[in-house]
Design goal:
Length: about 160
C-alpha cells in the first residue's frame, strides 16, 4: 500500500514516501491523499486502520480516497464504513512504480454485488460472480457493466 498526495497548486500526484507521513501531511495541509493498493483483500485491515489514523490526525472527510485495480463490495463496504467516501479503480497496467492516477474511475455507491476478486498464487483477478465460469473482468467492463448497468446482466441460472 502506498500513499500519493495531490496539492491544489500542483499538477499530478506525488508519492508520499510512507503511509503515515502521507496521512499526516494530508491531515495537516490542503493536500488530498489517495491510498493505492494492489492487494485490497489482504490489506483491508491496514486500509481501515489508515483511515482511522487519518481521522485521528484531524483529516477532513473527503480528503482521503482509496484506489485499486480490483473493485469488489467485499472490501469497499468496510472501507466506506471507515469514512472513506471515494473509492477508485486504477487501470491495472498503471500500478507500476509510477502509477497513472489521472486515469482513475470512481466506484459508485451502487455496484454489482456479483463483482468479486479471485486471489491466485501468481496474482489477483477481478471476476464476475454471475458468470458460471467466474469471467475475468477488465477495466472497461467496470464502467460499462459493473458500475452502471449491472442489473441487466445475465443471471447465472439463465446462462
Amino acid at each position: 500500500m502506498d500513499v500519493y498526495l495531490h496539492a491544489t497548486d500542483r499538477e499530478g500526484w506525488k508519492h508520499a514516501g510512507s503511509v503515515l507521513r502521507g496521512l499526516r501531511l494530508a491531515a495537516e495541509t490542503s493536500c488530498e491523499a489517495i491510498l493505492l493498493t494492489e492487494s485490497p483483500v489482504e490489506e483491508l485491515a491496514d486500509i481501515v486502520a489508515a483511515a482511522w489514523f487519518f481521522q485521528q490526525a484531524g483529516g477532513r472527510p473527503g480528503k482521503l480516497s482509496v484506489a485499486s485495480p480490483y473493485p469488489a463490495a467485499s472490501w469497499i463496504a468496510p472501507v466506506r464504513t471507515a469514512a472513506v467516501d471515494r473509492v477508485f479503480v486504477v487501470p491495472q497496467r498503471a500500478t507500476s512504480r509510477e502509477p497513472c492516477l489521472s486515469g482513475l474511475i470512481e466506484v459508485p455507491r451502487e455496484l454489482c454485488p456479483a463483482l468479486g476478486i479471485q486471489v491466485l498464487r501468481d496474482g489477483t483477478l477481478s471476476v464476475c460472480g454471475q458468470s458460471p465460469y467466474q469471467r475475468v473482468l477488465s477495466t472497461q467492463n467496470f464502467a460499462s457493466r459493473c458500475f452502471s448497468d449491472w442489473s441487466k446482466c445475465e443471471r447465472r441460472d439463465r446462462v
